[in-house]
Amino acid sequence: MSDMGNAITVTDIRKVYNIYDSPRDRLREVLSPTKKIYHREFWALDGVSFDVAHGETVGIIGRNGSGKSTLLQIICGILKPTTGTVSTSGRISALLELGTGFNPEFTGRENVYLSGALMGLGKDEIDARYQGIADFADIGDFINQPVKTYSSGMYVRLAFACAVNVDPEILVVDEALSVGDVFFQQKCFRKMAEFKERGKSLLMVSHDMNAVQKSCGRAVFLDNGRVMKAGDSREVINHYLETVLLKGERVRQKDFGEFPTGKRMTRQPSGEDRCMKKANYNKNEFRYGNFKARIVDFSMVDERCMEIMAVSSGGMVGFRYEVAYDEPVEFPVYGFTIKTKDGVTVYGNNTWYQGTVIEPKGRGDRVVVEFRQNINLAAGDYFISAGVAELAAEDAVPVDRRYDLAYLNVMPVDKSFGIANLFSKISVNDVNVSEG
């Protein structure tokens, strides 16, 4: 039975695998007259519970090996859980890791019919959808060739075309889209947006935090097979990044704009903090670091160095912040990021990326960092993050990282729309047509 209020309900799912050091140990365990155990248990999932409402898009995030793909396969019925239940309401279609769902010996055409049959469609229904699937995949005559001859890009084209053209109520998408070319990815994201507009439910796994932030109202963070946090996608993403940094793991630049790697804070900041007295300070900021140094003040100024809270689209803003050093930092790095109110990064930079060499700083030192730029953004609400890091062997250890520290309002100067304002100059000229 399914929960009528949810498209997907996952309740206390556990999945255990028996790990053997060698095939011989597996056989010895089977034949052991005393039932001696030769394996150790690996819990890929351990008590996972969450739900996806009808019409909702939820992101699943986590490190490699955290159990994301196993969870999706259980939700789709490919794997059975050791314990726990999954309830779904409506037809579910999935685009999982490459190699899942197609017979490599079959042609693309044959796999379309196989996929449709597995989804419960009759031949007449698949016949009616076939041309739409072939057109969306756009792999030409290769659709009549065995799938084992396909490139990864061709494979994912056909797989996604099959997944979205069977009119499912629930679409499950793993990281597989990342192998497609940029044009096909754009077509897929447009199709997924259309899917959402029709009130369908979407469950997606991605390592692209901007994509999760933009597409998903809620997110679930898995780590070591357990739900570490679930809820508002922005809060979950922040918790994920903090946890990854705690483990000292590399984070891709698009996930963590200012600094590519880092480690988690060891203590809470203490001492002065004039930031909180600013009118445009965001009390919901997210802060962490080892706090060898602290960002103690910030301001936004115009070209006359007058402090401001808002700027007209295209106007110049200098974002300044003061850093006080409590301990020596040999290789400081200073960075900042501008994000939309829903967490999408529109610009980020730092002194390391620009090749600016910063002198070592000692206890008691203070610096004022300033980033100056034209705000070529469309009218709207934005947040500015600031950070100090310490470079060590091409890793950057966050010293004081203040996400969404300051609010910036961008005022309209025209009726353009979007995120960026490119200040187009439009001209229309008549064409002289000579009489023949």
Please characterize this protein's 3D structure.
This protein is α/β, with parallel strands linked by helices and 436 residues long. It has 2 domains: 230 residues, 3-Layer(aba) Sandwich (Rossmann fold); 143 residues, abc- transporter (atp binding component) like domain (Coagulation Factor XIII, Chain A, domain 1, Distorted Sandwich), CATH 2.70.50. 21% of the residues lie in helices and 33% in strands. It has 8 helices and 18 strands. A 6-stranded mixed beta sheet has the order 5-6-7-3-8-9, with helices on both faces. β8 and β9 form a beta hairpin. It starts with 5 loop residues before the first strand and ends in a 25-residue tail after the last strand.
What's the total count of β strands? 18
SSE order, one letter for each helix or strand: EHEEHEEHHHEHEHEEHEEEEEEEEE
Distance between the termini: 76 Å
Chain-averaged pLDDT: 86
Question: CATH homologous superfamily of the largest domain, by name?
Answer: P-loop containing nucleotide triphosphate hydrolases
